[in-house]
Structure formats: C-alpha cells, structure tokens
Amino acid sequence: MSLVTNAAYLYYLGVSQSETITNTITPLINSAEKRVKEFLNRDLEWTAYTDELYDGNGKSKLTLRQFPIIYVSTIKEYNGIDSNDDETWDTLVEHTDYDRLIIPIEAFCIYLDNYTFTSGDQNYKITYYAGYTAGNTLTTGSCVVGKKYRIAAHSVVDFTTIGSSSNTVGTQFVATGTASMSVSDSLTELIAVPEDIQLACKKLVALYWRSTPANQNFIGVQSLSDSAGSASNNINIDLGAEQRILDSIEHHKAYNV
User: Fold this and answer.
1) Local structure of 70: helix, strand or coil
2) What are the Cα distances from residue 45, in Å, to 33, 91, 144, 226?
3) Residue 176 CA from chain centroid, whole number
4) Which of 5, 38, 53, 219 has CA atoms 20 to 30 A from the CA of 180?
5) 127-155 burial, b if ≥16 CB within 10 A, otherwise e?
6) Could you tell me the sign of the dihedral formed by the alpha carbons of 167, 170, 173, 175, in that order?
7) Residue closest to 73 by CA, chosen among 44, 40, 51
8) CA-CA distance, 110 to 69, in Å (whole number)?
9) Bridge-partner residues for 129, per DSSP?
10) What is the C-alpha separation between 206 and 93, in angstroms, rounded?
11) E strands, the chain, in order
C-alpha cells in the first residue's frame, strides 16, 4: 500500500495523469515514502507482526514497536526450557491471567488490567496488528482479520460473527474473522494515513521531481549563477528543504524502535 495515491501525487505536482508520467515518478514516490518511514522509525502501513519479542518491564503497560495498534492477537510469556531443551511459552488468557486488555486512544501501547509484565529480557512474545490503511470502502472481496472497519451498508452478512457488536450502519469494530463484501454489505477501512504525513510525502516527491534534469527551474528556491564568458549556468539549491519537511511530522516519530 502506498501512503498516498498516485492520483494525489500527480495532482499535487500539477502534471498529466498519464502512464508515462506515473512511471517516471514512481521511483521518486518510493524514495520519498522510504525516507518518511526511516525518519519516523515506523512501517506505517497496516501489517501483522507475529511473535515480536519484548522485555517485561514490571508494569501493567507495555509500549509496542509499531502503532497505531489495531488489534492484539496473542501475548505469550516465557516459561523456561523443557526436557528437550526447547523454549516453552504460555499464552496469557483474558479473565484468567488478566482482567482485560486496553489499547489507549493514542494506540502506541497495551495495558493489561490487573496484570504486571514480569521484568526480564525478551520474555514476552506478542502478535498484533498495527498501521494505517488506505481508507477504502470494500464492496467486493473479503474483509481482513486485524483491520478496523466501520459498517457502511448492511443487508445479509452478520457482522457480529466477525467481531462487531451489532449490524448497525456506522458501528466500528476490529475484524476477528472474514466475510464477503458487496454493495449492500460493505465496510469502510478506518485508521487512514494522517493528512500531515501524506502532505510530507507529496512535498518530498515534488522536491525530488524538481531536482530531476528535466525540471531544473525551481520557484522560490535560491539560485546561484556561475558565469564564464558567454555561458551562464544556474544551479538551484535548497539544502534544508528535505529536513524541514521531515521535521514537520516529527511528532509521529517512534522512539521505542
């Protein structure tokens, strides 16, 4: 999944939405989105993370590496070595090992009510789903386990069998199973990429686009002139532009990775 649609990139650049242009800027899009992810220390796109290792901290709250956290599938605690010298892991059970699992509004950590994560090194394995989606409304295909949806239309499908509290249009839920979608039974993906992250991606692509040999005439960028005889070479530079763009989204940065 791209963080921004190709159409949005092309519109921002003010160029024709032709296949040739799209192919030309695809490497620039890839570079821009890669740079944003590296700067934020985050994958950003919705992904399933299986058995990630964490250190217990002696607290009820544990910060995970990727966010926003959408759904936690399993939490396992290390329980030593068995007779075959294999590691053993116990899966924590809700209402038995802890009262309830809470994902705060900020969605960067998990909180287990009436439970303390045992202090230790890599003594927990957590499987969870985190990241942003494209925000599409599904009218074909199937929904995906671990994604958060809003019921957009309901006719036949019983959404309560896949995690929803009701079949009422507008109800939000995290899918715990799959179901086939149609125009009359549709879901809208939630947790879309924040607008400021999308804007930063578009600004970076525009910056890289203007830096290509075919687009050297910048507007609003310092120009240096190097004249030799009758020849004059203009070099347009803005050495701090990329960093300023990235700094604008620093508040999304993950410092726990």
Assistant:
1) strand
2) 11, 27, 14, 45
3) 19
4) 5
5) bbbbbbbeeeebeeeebbbbbbbbbbbbe
6) positive
7) 51
8) 8
9) 48, 71
10) 50
11) 47-54, 61-63, 69-81, 87-91, 100-102, 109-113, 124-130, 137-138, 148-153, 172-174, 186-189, 223-228, 231-236
Angle in degrees, 0-180, between the axes of helices 195-210 and 6-13, rounded to the nearest 10: 60
**Both tokens of residue 73?**
């599938």
Q: Which residue has the tokens 């190097």?
A: 226
Give per-residue burial for 93-125: e unless 16+ CB within 10 Å, then b: eeeeebeeeebeeeebbbebeebebeeeeebbb
pLDDT tens track for 152-204: 999 999 999 999 999 999 999 999 999 999 999 999 999 989 999 999 999 99
